UniProtKB/TrEMBL annotation:
Its EC number is 3.5.4.1. Residues 41-399 form the Amidohydrolase domain. This is Cytosine deaminase. Coiled coil: none annotated. It comes from Prosthecodimorpha hirschii. One of its GO terms (molecular function) is cytosine deaminase activity. CDD domains: Bact_CD. SUPFAM superfamilies: Composite domain of metallo-dependent hydrolases, Metallo-dependent hydrolases. Gene3D superfamilies: Metal-dependent hydrolases, Urease, subunit C, domain 1. The keyword Cell wall biogenesis/degradation does not apply. GO terms for biological process: cytosine catabolic process.
Amino acid sequence: MSLDLLVRNATLPDGRTGQDIAIADGRIAAIEPGIAAEAGRVIDAGGHLVAPPFVDCHFHMDATLSLGLPRMNVSGTLLEGIALWGELKPLLTFEAVVERALRYCDLAVAHGLLAVRTHVDICDDRLLAVEALLHVKKTVAPYLDLQLVAFPQDGYFRSPTAAANLDRALDLGVDVVGGIPHFERTMADGAASLKALCEIAERRGLLVDIHCDETDDPLSRHIEALAYETQRLGLNGRVAGSHLTSMHSMDNYYVSKLLPLIAEAGVAAIPNPLINITLQGRHDTYPKRRGMTRVPEMRAFGIEIGFGQDCTMDPWYSLGGADMLDVAHMGLHVAQMTAREAMRWCFDAVTVHPARIMHLDGYGLAPGCHGDLVVLQAKDPIEAIRLRANRLFVVRRGRVIAETPARIASLALPGRPAAVDPAAYAPKAG
């Protein structure tokens, strides 16, 4: 058997060690110890963790890397960010959106992030950002899966042309139906928008991803309506509620009713830890709410959960950098998920869980899956999060598309080692 790539001596996320991974014709042909075959390239993983690529199921690529245009978000709030984006939209050009998005994709690939679901604002009648990101999607397809969500940022009903623009965007090839019910003028309009949007998705056979209850208001309960519409239309497993920050502030008794409804409907949840803890609680004095939704409680009900990056250097967030381990690291801390099993799950929240939410075909680390993987300078998933580990190799369809040298510090200390490898500090087994 002649291979495209052979990765030797890998540690897998499930704990298996000493594994070889054979990739032929762009797909994983075998995972087992001691594979004997010739390959176009051989990588020695050196016992480091080899994982499927990182996946970001919530991002805004039309706004990324626009920090400072046309001004800064002085208050740092969600609402000023939305207002600032409204000022920037008329100034956007096709070329600028494409260039910023491609630069972000370069950064993503360097960090082993090979699939992104991005919301794209359809409230600009030009649909300039839609056309720009459709162009980017085609351009990056050989090395990154880009899924687009038709997002009515200014409200499906509140913006007078949003309904028509959303249909136009879907006709152009946008993949997913989006919405923002809590930004409508009334709670009733918010619920009506969910009914309309889910019916569009059912009619067209599309997925749904709603910016849902991104507020500190505990009475913003559109997730209940989203779960209802999902059940009514048979969209189970095809719908995600993003943010869900109002649940952080909801009455516990109501949540005890709500979580089973979400689970029954098969609605996924997409918290965005970096952004949720930054934008929520802005009206509080002390104690300040951190805003992220109830991840451990959702897990207990078997709800599918994927962490998202949301923003990078844009009107809402001036930091970020396409690093999903940074997202997992923050999510772990904010949700106080410090048990070993829970920390291990946070790695899945930026890999396999968002891949399922996005319905990615051929994703995973098993024979028959696409030959896509990341070699990390860490011994296991928890260590990868702790270290925000270097991506030593990033592989797409059996071809290495990014490499980063191992991070090794040289020391000049009497009686101490000459070098320090952060990955060598992993705790002993057991």
